[in-house]
Design brief:
homodimer; about 400 residues; alpha/beta; Aspartate Aminotransferase, domain 2; 2 domains; four-stranded antiparallel β-sheet; globular
């Protein structure tokens, strides 16, 4: 297995990639920003893509005479049942290219300009964008470091829900903090949504990337009363490292909800699955688990290394070990940097991190670090950061 | 070149494809329905896809550090300028997965339920569906066989435009009749749109597939007054035989039009290009012309063969040689068949054709025949049809 991971992938090969991670910055920079992993993809995915290529099979997909979107829906439902004890109805699962499409479409379908949308902050930038770019009011439910973990205040949630809120967007596991919300936290969110008749959009794209000690709970699987007011967005692209293949699903918890959505945004507007995204996703969900398990072991070691090294050598940086995702949220306020933290590490260390202010207004002292790379590259990234601080 | 075409592709290889054309029906049926070609794809496309595979390069695309959508827009604009004497502004070109998304989105963005939408009939089924599924009124502008060609009546167009029409959808070259509209016809459409302040959606996906004697004119390139009220939809997927890769563009003829569109349908709802669709489309538009020229020669021979054989051996079938597309529209009314023409040929001949009633209400005596296959398979298809008619 390990020979499939980054040790088998040379830096030169990574630098030849045409992806955001490896093309955004120049050759002097080590990238740890955008959420791509440096690992090769799983063997079943490679086999599926190679088969498509060898057949030159680029017509309208109808694998085995079945509709591609339907196959995706069934594979997704099966995987949720197998792994997360949740059984979505495949008839209420629709395909799309990526989760951001689904977020935009649901915000448009289920709210009107001026309506409030509750978002856990800090937030994946495109969640915020789906709210603000569509002229909805962003109601920020801040996750605060309570000394042990990032958590929200139920009283704040209740106050926000009372402010003409129509939607609640939950990102769980949470990007960028790495939180895996507990049953109690999810119940608090769901019960508040019930009280205020909110529709809940749930981004669970990191559900597969959960570390020892934590357990992902699907919001819609917790309670039928939550399910009927929920749309769950998911994709194999994050955990199987194929974001460029563009394939995702939206699972509606209730037929009426899907009908209401379709009135405003006919699913045809979201597009049909492309053959490579379809093949890769089916292969990932059906045959990718051994690869994922091996990658999780690597990622957990990388996470532990990041936390250990930074806590020891840069105690002014506050870091909580993420329970999931391959992203670490670093609060560098204690460093009292003269510029934004991302600019500092880019210029002084040649390390590209995601800027905190993209995740939360006023967050420029924070950065998000992507640790899904090889042990070797990770050491270089950490050492460059520490060297900069030492020189500093 | 010819060794790249179907003679090099065995029937067994075609039957192994997972596409609509080769999976919709059983092994006793020769498919000539959905618009896929049986030809292998162009060498530059194969090279681009193979490069992506060999690099395992599935991150967020940023080829050479450039935005994928922007590269597509520029390649499209360049190709239109080179081939069709039209220079769209790349800043007003947005990517999407397929044209049907664009049709749906434009119908939603530029009209309201109950508004009239003029559609040339018979029509590609999903154009009609984009109108009727969104509760707009379909205003049918019928193309009638005037003894030489399929043409519309300008007086009918004028009457329809007066019936609370908001949109005019032009499919040019036209599916399923194969018409390439003349400058005079396009001007009549454009001037009517001006008089009645219609927005014009132009599906030009067959623009590359035009035969000797005809010339494709881009509607938006004919007159700046037409351009400003137009959205042109196009894709390399049809002419380069890669529909499953899902990559298309919409070119807005005016900034205000794109802004109006984005207010109602933020382009983010349409999705971002997938890496394979992006690579293949850039390769097709930039390096695919020699392949396309060779394929057009094959297709024109196939078209001529269909027309010659059917006119000679089945004169009761009315057929006009299509000026473009690899689709022939056959009016089988003269055969006085007891069932729909598509059912007849499927059951009696084992040939799958697209049913006429999907293109126009009451069109069940018509079928659409896809002749983009090898000379050998085409002979089998035609012979099976003629044998069925002989038997009776």
């Amino acid at each position: 297995m390990t020979d499939e991971l980054v040790p088998g992938r040379e830096l030169a090969a990574l630098r030849a990639l045409q992806s955001d991670k490896w093309r955004r910055f120049g050759p002097d920079v080590l990238p740890a920003h955008v959420a791509e992993m440096d690992y090769p993809v799983a063997a079943p995915i490679r086999a599926a893509l190679a088969g498509r290529i060898s057949r030159q099979d680029y017509g309208y997909p109808l694998p085995g005479g079945r509709d591609g979107g339907r196959l995706l829906a069934e594979a997704f439902a099966q995987r949720m049942a197998d792994r997360f004890d949740w059984s979505p109805d495949p008839a209420l699962v629709i395909p799309m290219g990526d989760l951001v499409q689904g977020l935009y479409a649901c915000v448009l379908a289920f709210s009107d300009p001026g309506d409030g949308v509750i978002v856990l902050m800090p937030s994946y930038p495109k969640i915020r964008e789906a709210v603000t770019a569509n002229a909805r009011r962003l109601l920020a439910l801040t996750l605060r470091d309570d000394g042990e973990r990032f958590a929200f205040d139920p009283a704040e949630l209740e106050a926000l829900a009372s402010d003409r809120a129509r939607l609640l967007i939950i990102c769980n596991p949470h990007n960028p903090t790495g939180r895996v919300f507990s049953r109690a936290e999810l119940r608090a969110l769901g019960e508040c949504a019930e009280r205020h008749n909110l529709i809940v959009l749930v981004d669970e794209v990191h559900a597969d990337l959960v570390y020892t000690g934590a357990r992902h709970l699907s919001f819609a699987g917790l309670d039928p009363a939550f399910a009927v007011r929920s749309v769950t967005l998911n994709s194999a692209t994050k955990s199987f490292n194929i974001p460029g293949l563009r394939c995702a699903v939206a699972a509606f918890g209730d037929r009426a909800l899907l009908q209401r959505f379709s009135q405003r945004i006919p699913p045809r507007v979201l597009g049909d699955p492309n053959v490579f995204g379809l093949d890769a996703t089916l292969a990932a969900w059906q045959d990718g688990q051994p690869w994922l398990a091996a990658v999780l072991t690597e990622l957990e070691a990388a996470r532990d290394r990041v936390v250990t090294v930074l806590r020891a050598a840069a105690p002014a940086i506050r870091i909580r070990a993420p329970e999931a995702t391959y992203l670490a949220w670093l609060d560098c306020s204690g460093l009292e940097l003269p510029v934004t933290a991302s600019d500092y590490f880019l210029r002084a260390a040649g390390v590209a991190l995601s800027p905190g202010q993209a995740f939360i207004p006023g967050g420029s002292a924070c950065v998000r670090l992507n640790f899904a790379t090889s042990p070797t590259l990770l050491e270089h990234i950490l050492q460059r950061m520490l060297d900069a601080l030492t020189r500093g």
